[in-house]
Write a structure and sequence with these properties.
By secondary structure, the protein is mostly helical. The chain has five helices and no strands. Helix 2 (12-30) packs across helix 3 (36-65), helix 2 runs antiparallel to helix 5 (101-124) and helix 4 runs antiparallel to helix 5 (101-124). The mean pLDDT is 89.
Length: 129
């Protein structure tokens, strides 16, 4: 069973699907007081964005963690990933006319920034290799 669980844990498809369902579900909840079509659009948009950002964050942190030295190596990669994610999330939700933009992106942005910081730390300390 542990081999099966380990394979699931390494699967990009599992990570992307989980991001879509979890953060799309959050967007549904964050927009629950609005009419169903707007709530559903917010959920689909956030789910798709979270799925794409999951792939972006991993590669961005890997790329930027190699470019910085010293204490900047611990701060800059997750900060750059956070700013990039925030820009993308807010811009696309604004284009999609999501009613509760900041509530919608708050949790996904917190999760993605935490992931970027932890993954960056693991790369820099040799625990992510």
């Amino acid at each position: 069973m542990s081999g099966w669980v380990a394979r699931l844990g390494r699967s990009s498809t599992v990570h992307v699907t989980f991001a879509f369902l979890a953060m799309g579900g959050w967007a549904l909840f964050a927009n629950r007081v609005h009419p169903l079509p707007r709530m559903l659009l917010a959920g689909v948009v956030q789910g798709a964005l979270s799925a794409c950002l999951t792939l972006y964050l991993k590669s961005a942190v890997e790329r930027f963690s190699k470019r910085f030295k010293g204490s900047a190596a611990f701060v800059a990669p997750p900060l750059i990933a956070c700013l990039g994610s925030a820009s993308i999330l807010i811009a696309i939700h604004a284009l999609a006319a999501t009613p509760e933009i900041f509530r919608t992106v708050a949790v996904p942005l917190a999760v993605s920034t935490s992931y970027a910081a932890i993954y960056n730390y693991s790369l820099l300390t040799g625990k992510g290799k």
